[in-house]
Amino acid sequence: MIEKAEFNNLFKNEDKKIPKKEIEKINKYLSNFAKPNKDLKCFKCSEKLGGFFGTFQYGIVHGEGYCSNCEWPARAIHYDVGIIKQFTFILQYHPDKVIKTKEE
Ligand SMILES: [Zn+2]
């Protein structure tokens, strides 16, 4: 089973500056995505997503993209996530949120 992304996977809440309610909002957003693994590898095909040789490829929609090896969708630029205006991090969509529209 693929875990969902959470605040603690991506951010540090030093001195508990971010209130619990805000973290809940952020977690609600992040639950659309799979928990990123340590090496930022694609959970489906295990290729490295990020970096110069990474497989992440931007698509037509701003901030959205996919793994160019297996085509699993991901989002790299995130806006208005609770109190966070913007952050950039490749997060793959959680399998619960991905609908396959055609058979290959
Ligand atoms: Zn992949």
Descriptive key words:
binds zinc ion, globular, 4 strands, alpha+beta, 104 residues, 2 helices, 14% helix
Report on the architecture of this protein.
By secondary structure, the chain is α+β, with helices and mostly antiparallel strands. It has one domain (7-97). It is built from 2 helices and 4 strands, in the order ααββββ. The chain has a 4-stranded antiparallel sheet, covered by helices on one side. A hairpin with a 5-residue loop joins strand 1 and strand 2. The longest helix has 11 residues, at 20-30. The protein binds zinc ion (ZN). Zinc ion is lined by residues 42, 44-45, 47, 55, 67, 69-70, 72.
Which SSEs are present, and which pair or pack?
Layout: H1 7-10, H2 20-30, E1 56-58, E2 64-67, E3 73-81, E4 84-92
Antiparallel strand pairs: 1-2, 2-3, 3-4
The chain binds zinc ion.
Zinc ion is lined by residues 42, 44-45, 47, 55, 67, 69-70, 72.
**Annotation field: number of helices:** 2
What is the helical fraction, as a range of percent?
10-25%
Oligomer description: single chain
Shape: globular
The main β sheet shows up as: 4 strands, antiparallel
Write down the overall mean pLDDT.
Answer: 94
Order of helices and strands: HHEEEE
In total, the number of strands is 4
Strand coverage percent? 15-25%
Summarize the entry for a quick read:
This protein is an alpha+beta fold.
